[in-house]
Amino acid sequence: MLLMMVLLSSCTNAVKIRGIKTLSLDLGADTTLGTHFAYSKTFGANGIGNGQLNAPFGVAVDPAGNVFIGDNDNNRVVKFDSSGNFVANIGSGGSGNGQLSNPMGVALDSNQNLFVADLSNNRVVEFDSSGSFVANIGSFGAGNGQFNAPLGVAIDSSDQIYVIDGNNSRVVKFDSSRVFVSNIGSLGAGDGHLNNPYSAILDSSGNLFVADFFNHRVVKFDSSGTFVANIGSVGSGDGQLQSPFGIALDSLGNIFVSDGGNNRIEEYDSSGNFVANIGGAAPSDGNLGAPMAIATDSSANLFLVDETGVVVEFSRYSF
């Protein structure tokens, strides 16, 4: 069963999110997550006020531990400090400079500039570290440097920008000067192909890992954009995936995938071997509605964005 459905129109730039299926990740009474995480805290709440979220779909964490959430239905990015306290709203609804319409994935470069996948405006919006508008990247279309429903964004160690171009089933790469470089992947189910990818992450060597939603796998490309491997396959067993949405890496190269259709997080090692199913543990007083985007901080703590409007932090207690 699909975690969510994005209705993508090839003839209009008005892209809307519809049909989110509420999933249940059983939290139980245990406070451990998998074999090396423990529940830390939950912050945020459903709503439209400061510190509240409405259908959040992206998360990034800066070196100071500040957390940035793509707040889709509120057309903004919400910033929290490392304690989970509200700091600021970035952006507002609209199509002008510094405005957003259904923002999805978010990412930070080495200067803490914020990049936002601005879904319904078919662009990426860049803000500086103070939240001021810097630039728009891309436009609607299928040509080089264009997007049809950008769903996510990732930044490598050289500050090159990778935009997850959902309806074009590819990743669009720009250099650090925001100049188009190449397209990675194309529509299909074979090796090196993608079908409605949702998010991506890069390791320290520049390898690109893409959550390939409708192919139910993670696709790995090397730093030149050449296919390397598929990780996972469709199913509900260990190491299998059903509608993967978010993806994150820790400092050891372990891969974490929000496995929406199976109500869990899947962990793989740096070689793509299955490690653990992460689930059945978090606050004992509630359930997660739908595991969406995930991120790690510099201490390898895990942040999970829940579709119900909260962010759940799990502290790593062993490697």
Number of helices: 0
- Most strands sheet: 5 strands, antiparallel
Give helix % range.
under 10%
Number of strands: 33
Distance between the amino and carboxyl termini? 33 Å
Q: Largest sheet, order of strands side by side?
A: 3-4-33-32-31
Radius of gyration: 17 Å
Could you report the average pLDDT, rounded to the nearest whole number? 87
What does this 3D model show about the protein?
The strands form ten sheets. The protein has a five-stranded antiparallel sheet, with no helix packed on it. A four-stranded antiparallel sheet has the order 5-6-7-8, with no helix packed on it. The two termini are 33 Å apart. By secondary structure, the protein is mainly β. It has no helices and 33 strands. Helix content is 0%, strand content 47%. It has strands at residues 5-7, 16-18, 32-33, 37-43, 56-61, 67-71, 76-80, 86-90, 92-93, 99-100, 103-108, 114-118, 123-127, 133-137, 139-140, 146-147, 150-155, 161-165, 170-174, 180-184, 186-187, 193-194, 197-202, 208-212, 217-221, 227-231, 244-249, 255-259, 264-268, 274-278, 291-296, 302-306, 310-316. Strand 1 and strand 2 (16-18) form a beta hairpin. Mean pLDDT is 87; it is low at 1-34 and 280-287. 47% of the residues are buried.
List the helices and strands and how they pair.
Blueprint (H helix, E strand, L loop, with lengths): L4 E3 L8 E3 L13 E2 L3 E7 L12 E6 L5 E5 L4 E5 L5 E5 L1 E2 L5 E2 L2 E6 L5 E5 L4 E5 L5 E5 L1 E2 L5 E2 L2 E6 L5 E5 L4 E5 L5 E5 L1 E2 L5 E2 L2 E6 L5 E5 L4 E5 L5 E5 L12 E6 L5 E5 L4 E5 L5 E5 L12 E6 L5 E5 L3 E7 L3
Parallel strand pairs: 9-10, 15-16, 21-22
Antiparallel strand pairs: 1-2, 3-4, 4-33, 5-6, 6-7, 7-8, 11-12, 12-13, 13-14, 17-18, 18-19, 19-20, 23-24, 24-25, 25-26, 27-28, 28-29, 29-30, 31-32, 32-33
